[in-house]
Amino acid sequence: MIFNDKYTKQFVNKKEIEAIKPFVEVADKMLDDKSFLGSDFLGWMDLPKDYDKEEFERIKKAALKIRKESKALVVIGIGGSYLGARAAIEFMLPTYYNQTNDVEVYFVGTNMSPNYITDIYNLVKDKDFSVNVISKSGTTTEPAIAFRIFKKLLEEKYGEKEAASRIYATTDKKKGALKTLSDKKAYETFVVPDNVGGRFSVLTAVGLLPIAAAGINIDDLMNGANQARIDLSNKNFFENDAMKYAAIRNILYRKGKDIEIFVNYEPRLQFIAEWLKQLFAESEGKDLKGIFPTSASFSTDLHSIGQAIQEGKRNIFETIISVDNVINDIVIEKDEEDLDGLNFLAGKSLDYVNKMAKKGVVLAHVDGNVPNIEISIDKINEYNLGYLFYFFEKAVAISGYVNGVNPFDQPGVEAYKKNMFALLEKPGYEEETKKIFERIDN
Ligand code: PA5
C-alpha cells in the first residue's frame, strides 16, 4: 500500500505536521497501552495474529459446506455486521457476480422494505440456499425481522432439521436473542468477540464466513491484515502511514475541511467506501464534532457532485483509493470512419485513459482548493484488501483519539431505535409510546 500526501502539501505545511505529531504519537501509545476511552474494544488490534485458529478452521469448513450444498447464500445483518463482508465480496468478485459466481450472495436485514425482501425471497425460494445471520447484540430489529422470514422459508422448504443445518449464526458468545435461538435450534454458531465492535469486526467470523463462502481466500486476507498490523506498529511517525493520515486529516479538519470524500475510479471499490463511511462516521462523528465521511465514484460522480467538489463550499478534502494494475485491460481500436472522433485514442488502453482522467481530476480539484490524499494498492487481491481494512481501522482509531473522542462507541445509533420502538409499541416502552403519540398528535 502506498500513502501519497503530495497533493496536501500546499494546504498542510511541515510546521503543522511537526506541531500535531506529538498528539498523534500519544494517541498511538494510548491504543498500545489500552489506557484511554473505549479500551475494552481494542480486540481488533491483534486480531490478524491472535484470531481464534480453531474457529477459523470451522469457518473454512462451513464455507465449503455452503458452497457444496447451496446455490445461494442469504447473509442477514446490518452496519458492522454487513458492510465488511459486502465490501470484500464486491471488491474481489467480478461485477454482477451473482450471474457468474458458484454461490450467489444476497444481503438482507439492511432495510425493512417489503419490496426488497420479497425480491430476494423470490430469487432464492426455488434454489438450494443457506443463511448466515449475523448480529453481535442478537437483538437488532432489521436483521431479526429478515431472519424470521428466511428461517420460515428454509423450514418450509427443507423441514426443521435440515433447515437448522443450513443456518449459521454469528453472534455474541453468551447473550442475546439470537444466541438463545441458535442454542435451542442447534445452529452452528460463530462468535463476535466481546472486545471487537461491529465496524471493526470484518476480520472475525462476521466478515470471514460470508467472504469464504463466496470463494474468497481468507488466509491471504488475514496475512495482508497482519502485515499492516506489523507495519503500523512502527513508532517512527514518518514511517507510519496510519499516523501520517491521522495527522493530515486532523490538520485539515481544524482548517475547516470537515467533509472527507472517499473517491474511487474502480466500481469494485464502491462498497469499500460504504464500509469506510460507517467506520469513520460512527468512530468520529460524536460530541458535536468530527469529519463527515462521504464517497464518490468517478467518472460517474464527476458528472454530478463533481460540480460541487470543483466549485462549491471549500470545506472538503478527498481521499482517493486506487488500484494500480487492472485485471483486464481493453485497447481502444482505430475506426476507419472515425465518426465519433475518437481515433486520437486509438492504440491507447482504457486503463491509461482512466489514469489520465484521474491525474486531470486531481490537478483540477487541487487547483480548486480541495486537498487530495491518495492511498493505492498494486492490484485487486485478498492480501491487499486485508491490508487496507487494517490500515483504515488503525488510522481512524488514532484519528479519533487525536480529536478527543471515543472511537469505539456509537451512542447516536440508539436515538432512532427508541422512537421506532415507542411507535411500534414494543413492551417496556409504554411511557415513551404515550409521549411520542402526544408529540405527533399535537
Ligand atoms: O458499528 C456498530 O456497532 C453498529 O453499526 C452495528 O454493527 C450494527 O448496529 C449492527 O449491530 P448488531 O451486530 O448488534 O446487530
UniProtKB/TrEMBL annotation:
It comes from Oceanivirga miroungae. NCBIfam families: PRK14097.1. GO terms for biological process: gluconeogenesis; glucose 6-phosphate metabolic process; glycolytic process. Keywords: Cytoplasm, Gluconeogenesis, Glycolysis, Isomerase. Pathway: Carbohydrate biosynthesis; gluconeogenesis; Carbohydrate degradation; glycolysis; D-glyceraldehyde 3-phosphate and glycerone phosphate from D-glucose: step 2/4. It comes from the Bacteria. The active site is at residues 282, 417. GO terms for cellular component: cytosol. It catalyses: alpha-D-glucose 6-phosphate = beta-D-fructose 6-phosphate. One of its GO terms (molecular function) is carbohydrate derivative binding. SUPFAM superfamilies: SIS domain (SSF53697). This is Glucose-6-phosphate isomerase. InterPro entries: G6P_Isomerase, Phosphoglucose_isomerase_CS, SIS_dom_sf, SIS_PGI_1, SIS_PGI_2.
